[in-house]
From TrEMBL:
Residues 51-141 form the SCP2 domain. Pfam families: SCP2. Required for O(2)-independent ubiquinone (coenzyme Q) biosynthesis. Likely functions as an accessory factor. This is Ubiquinone biosynthesis accessory factor UbiT.
Length: 168
């Protein structure tokens, strides 16, 4: 932690934005809605190809979880279609939601921080069908970075190193 050398008080610095993921997320949220949903659907199905093939998302059949990124003012409604593929929409009804700033989701995805700690510290929150929200949280927490597509795995690994160096 940086401190003021005169007062010895912690410096209130703006939180730096971790490297490779921030510009991509911001760019996605600026796309027209139809294109944004298509891009997110493709990215999620690519990123989660292994757990989808292993039917780990079957609990989502007929249900919708809203992923809310508060700081980016983005809401993604994720469900499972009849072809066992994730479908992302930008509006709709949700059975449950998980919300937080994108940095909290990054900390969970990179295993930088235990997800229960993020929920206890209110960096992430679940509402609606708590069981469904916890199932999604546990699935995301169980994913291994090395099973993800290489560009995403590399970005997450670099972001983890960034978080570690900054001790965020």
């Amino acid at each position: 932690m940086l401190v003021n050398p005169i007062t010895q008080q912690p410096l209130a610095l703006p939180l730096p934005q971790p490297n490779l993921i921030t510009p991509g997320l911001k760019a996605i949220t600026q796309l027209p809605q139809g294109l944004q949903a298509q891009v997110l659907t493709k990215l999620m199905n690519t990123a989660f190809a292994v757990p989808l093939a292993e039917e780990e998302f079957d609990f989502l059949a007929g249900r919708t979880i809203r992923i809310g990124l508060r700081d980016l003012n983005a809401n993604w409604f994720v469900s499972l279609n009849e072809d066992n593929q994730l479908l992302v929409r930008l509006s709709g009804e949700e059975d449950a939601s998980i919300e937080g700033d994108w940095l909290a989701f990054l900390k969970m995805a990179t295993h930088y921080c235990d997800p229960d700690t993020l929920f206890f510290q209110r960096q992430l929150s679940i509402s609606g069908d708590t069981e469904l929200g916890l199932h999604v949280k546990n699935l995301l927490d169980s994913l291994e970075i090395d099973t993800l597509p290489k560009p995403l795995a590399r970005s997450l690994t670099l972001s983890h190193h960034y978080l570690t160096k900054l001790a965020l």
